[in-house]
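REQUEST FORM: STRUCTURE PREDICTION
Request ID: SP-0412
Submitted by: Lab K.M.
Chain count: 1
Length (residues): 125
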Amino acid sequence: GNPYETPPIVIDDISEYYIKPMGNGAVLMGKVIDEWDLDLKKIPPFSAIDERKIIDFFNKKLPNINTIKVNKKVVGYDLYTPSRQGEIKLSPIAKNCLFVSGFSGQGFKLAPEISKKASKMSIAI
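STATUS: Completed
RESULT:
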């Protein structure tokens, strides 16, 4: 069994991978990227290789979490917003793209609530 009832939030500064518990056994995993000039019509998919690297990384980093399974994949990018206001919305032009941006500087004060809303919206995509 899994000794972690709820896995810890981990943001690895070297790999830039992150994992965050979302409740009901679900976790949000990903990789921070620093790309700014993205064509939203040509967003690259999250590959099986990327997925395996992140899962393997966290299985080694948190050896008691050996049951990570992917139920759903969503590709997203953190970009600045033209209005300079925080936004959580579906892209009007890119299918299956959820924008969650503009919350820089708020850190973990807002991050749990923002990620809850984003995860609920991504489930509906």
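NOTES: The longest strand covers residues 17-23.
Reviewed by: T.R.
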